[in-house]
Amino acid sequence: MYGAFSDDGPWRVEPTRCTWRRDVDALRATSQAQVPEWLRARAIPPLRRFGHAAWDVGGAVTAWWLLDKRRGASALRAGLSRRLRRAFERLGSSYIKLAQIVSSGKGIFPDELVEEFKLCRDRVPAEPFSHVREVLEAEFGRPLGQIFSRIDETPLASASIAQVHAATLHPDLAARLGGGREVVVKVQRPRIAELVRQDVAAMAWIAPYLVGRIPVAALANPPALVELFAETVSEELDFRLEAQNMLDVAHVLRDAGQSIIVVPRPHPELVARRALVMERLDGFHADDIDGMRAAGIDTAAVLRSLMIAFLEGAMIYGVFHGDLHGGNLVVMRDGRVGLFDYGMTGRMAEPQRLAFLRMMMTGAANDVRGQLAAFRDLGALDPDADLDELMRILKVDQPVRDPTKMSSEELVREIQTVLRALLKNGARLPKHLMLYVKNMLFIDGSIGRYAPDEDVFGEIAKIYGYFAQKHGARILADVGFDPSRQALDLRGVRAGMGLEADVTSLSPAELQQRRETMRKKLEEAGPMLRGKRS
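The structure corresponding to this sequence follows.
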């Protein structure tokens, strides 16, 4: 078998017989080459889209301020979250994609915002079926009845760029490929490509004016963040690239011997720029933890295996699914994970993969300077970044201070000191590192539900042991680090979490409680974070 597909699929995958793969490398290069045009400097932004964004987001914040301001803190956050979600849905794909990223950050962003933005994963208002028919017939060049004997007009899921419909292939078409008929059809929203280009142009216009004005935006480097977003979304607009990503990730998983992830087979013929037909996979929704456990599924093992497969793709192969969230997976009844949506896939050239591998291994060895050097080589810091200064600012040679025991003012000062040092040394978030962080936010936010009784440090040790046993020789050859001989040093992990040296175990509930404490402290110190004097 070519890749990590289901045991008994509707057709065999033979890449050489996939007609849509012709010139796929040239298509990817063309997609990347158009990004500079989207980002070029303009005297004025695309006024209509810029005006819509200002009206919807500004209106949401104004209505919240006028109508919800007197309510309690939690109700305040819930009200603003709900209004922002509705504004983002009205604005469409680019803003919905941002909401999806936030929805993966449980424990990092306010719970009310995460829960509200989860609705942007697969419950975005759907396009009328007449638009779906129009796109499918245009892309495949024939009437819908010649492709499908049935297609559900109500979508299974509806997200930022596309929506997905269940369908049954026409018997003649199915028989030619082996008889399998039950499929899902991913259909791009009409005019979405043009709207995304306009949104990126508007973002690129305003981004330089945000530099240094918003603390969080300053760390992200707004112009670089917009460029990163454009690079990512440009490839999502051509489903032929997504189908190739599916083949590549499936091949990597198969080569690694992974059995936990199941990639849906893309159809050998029915793939086009705006339409993608693939095998249908069913299972428990990612949030149905009780259902999984009632079926005898070890949810802690599911999450651990998912993280191993993701890290293995990044560290060993340089190719990984870059958009893990609950709307993109189902847990099948045999405990395997059906993983969907490969438009956002991480691809690292060999120098980047080696830098990423060094980042992970130096982190496991508590080699902070080595980790900073790896960040620099990944493009997250300037080539001439002062690593010694960063080491001093991070106070590596001093005992860890627990941030939950600091006052609000002390915590803010610590954060601002680190931010200034990072910005001085050109801190940014390259695409592959952003996708890694995004996936880790999802996994981190899932620990408390999937593995509530596990020790966080114990889980890290199990994953390190897997890589030491299976890939130790490869890691030694690649970066000169032998994990089979080097014990895991958790001091750096504890320090990164703000834990003092005598903490030997940590439950997911304790980790969540620490983050909630820090969130409240930062909330209390809001004026300081906004650059005001209290």
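The radius of gyration is 24 Å.
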